[in-house]
Every structure is written in structure tokens, then in C-alpha cells.
Design goal:
alpha/beta, Rossmann fold, 6-stranded mixed β-sheet, 7 helices, 30% helix, globular
């Protein structure tokens, strides 16, 4: 099979005739009696106290609670950025914490997408380049990847902004780019940490609706932690967190 190398907005793109495909395996998230303690000079600081729940492909849940209740710690564990002290998390039947570091990094890149309160876009890269950055972990970016990135920008309403730098975009537009980037690898689990926290009410409403629509269309599991009652009300399922426990 012949191939060629071109340049798309500064990122090397390898052209092939075989687009990336996704596994047909349905995702399921299972969290069983998860605890998280941090050592202190006196006694362990207990942040999560036996959290359990499960979600099937396409399910959406908002987790609400006061600061310090353990919401972000739980999200970090679901995203494999932190490891539980006890309990088990499985996604697609795999316990990611049983994997070696390289396999864990691959699992995270392939299975999990993140949307944070701050967009964390690379300021020197265009909107399209920022979306495509998540593909670099798998090697060169293909023509199919570039086409998907462009399609995702269209899906989030930024079809005409692909070559704009983050400084040339509004706050809501930057967060839309971050959502497109999170969806680039077709994650089975989409995690959002206060995704509308830096936005005004109207823009936050639009971003919340966009997240839910795109997650539903892709059948990704969507978990968002938020202080916003308006965002939480958009989700068909809500859970509260108080003192490290889900209510």
C-alpha cells in the first residue's frame, strides 16, 4: 500500500487508505467499594469512603457536592490519573490498575476523554491542531484523523475556526475545541470536571447541551462533576457526594 506524508496546519500527517476503526465492544463502567486515603503524620486522611456505582454505554450522570467532598478525587480515579487505596474500577471489563504503566497509558488514551474547567489548549497550535494532538500518542496523524478532527470541529459549531489560535477564540469556543479533542479518540468514558465553571450562564448552558448530545450520539459514558445546579439538571441521573460518600 502506497502512502505519502503531507503537512496539515503544522502537524505531520501520514496518508493511508485504512481509516482507524473502533472496537464494537460495548463499554460498561463498574466502581466497587472504592476508597482513597492519603497518609498524614497523624492518621490517614480519608477522602473516599466506599464508593460504588455502575454505568452502561451511553449513560450520563452528574455528581454534585460541596468542595472537598471527594468529587475530583473520584474523577481522577475513574480517569486512571490516581489509584484507589482499596476497591475496584473496571471499564470494558478491564481493571486498568492491573496494567503496567505503558499499557495503562495506552488504555487511558484509547478509552478515556477528559474535559476540564480550563480548556488546556496549546496556545501555539490552531484549533484543528489542538484536536489532533490526542492522536500523536499513536504515531503520525493520518488523513482520516485530520478529516475526523475537522468533522468534530463542525459538530461543535467551529467549522470556520479550524485555523484560529486559542487567543483568537472566545472562552466558549475554546471549551468547544477541548470537547472535540476529548472525543477525537472515540472514548468509551468521557469525564468532565466543572466543564462550565469558567463560562457565563448562557454559554454554560450551550456547552452542557453540546456535551450531552455528543456523548449520547457516540454512546460514550458521560460523568461530570459540577457545582452548577443548571448543568446537573440536564443529566437524567444525578448523584450527590458528601464527605466521600455518594448519596
Amino acid at each position: 500500500m502506497s502512502s505519502k506524508v503531507t503537512i496539515v496546519t503544522g502537524i505531520q500527517v501520514e496518508s493511508t487508505s485504512t481509516p482507524a476503526t473502533n472496537s464494537a465492544i460495548s463499554a460498561g463502567l463498574s466502581v466497587t467499594d472504592v476508597r482513597k486515603d492519603y497518609p498524614t503524620p497523624a492518621e490517614p486522611l480519608v477522602v473516599l469512603r466506599g464508593v460504588s456505582f455502575s454505568l452502561a454505554a451511553g449513560e450520563r450522570v452528574a455528581i454534585v457536592g460541596p468542595s472537598g467532598s471527594g468529587k475530583s478525587t473520584l474523577l481522577n480515579i475513574l480517569g486512571t490519573l490516581d489509584e484507589p487505596t482499596a476497591g475496584q474500577v473496571t471499564l470494558d471489563g478491564v481493571n486498568p490498575f492491573s496494567l503496567r504503566s505503558k499499557a495503562l497509558a495506552k488504555f487511558r488514551s484509547e478509552k478515556i476523554g477528559f474535559v476540564f474547567q480550563d480548556h488546556h489548549l496549546l496556545p501555539q497550535c490552531t484549533a484543528l491542531e489542538n484536536v489532533l494532538v490526542s492522536r500523536l500518542a499513536f504515531g503520525n496523524v493520518s488523513d482520516a484523523d485530520a478529516a475526523r478532527g475537522s468533522e468534530l470541529l463542525k459538530d461543535v459549531g467551529l467549522e470556520g475556526r479550524a485555523t484560529h489560535l486559542p487567543a483568537e477564540l472566545s472562552g466558549g469556543e475554546r471549551q468547544r475545541v477541548a470537547i472535540a479533542r476529548a472525543l477525537m479518540n472515540r472514548p468509551r468514558l468521557l469525564l468532565c470536571d466543572e466543564p462550565t465553571g469558567n463560562l457565563d450562564t448562557r454559554t454554560g448552558q450551550a456547552i452542557g447541551e453540546l456535551l450531552i448530545r455528543l456523548a449520547t450520539e457516540s454512546q460514550a459514558i458521560l460523568v461530570a462533576v459540577t457545582h452548577s445546579p443548571a448543568l446537573a439538571s440536564m443529566f437524567p441521573r444525578q448523584m450527590g457526594m458528601v464527605d466521600g460518600r455518594l448519596t
